[in-house]
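Illustration: Fungal N-terminal domain-containing protein.
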Amino acid sequence: MDPLGVAASIATLLHVCRIILGYFEEVKESSSSRRRVRKDISSLYGYLVDLQCRLEERGANEDEWFKGVRTLAAKNGPLDDYRSIHEELQSRMTRSSLPGSLRKLSEAIKWPFKET
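Result:
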């Protein structure tokens, strides 16, 4: 994958992370599993921002560092896995079509993730 494609993948993941984190901000009362997921997503967001900044600083240089980053963006690689997981999380959190405060209430009452 070219540098622009890697940057686009990272930008997409950052966008999904922001949406998920926004959900957690809306729901004030959160269970321990929600707090754990929020912490994990916040950490991932930080790593992705750092990776995106480093990628932008280096540009399209074909050095060893970029070759390593490119493997992250390979088909079915870690970035694809993260994207799939985050899109599933986003899907579960936005299924409710209730308006405004009713949606927030239903989200606060029902934890959309299943314990495995």
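Reading the tokens back as a structure: The two ends are 34 Å apart (CA to CA).
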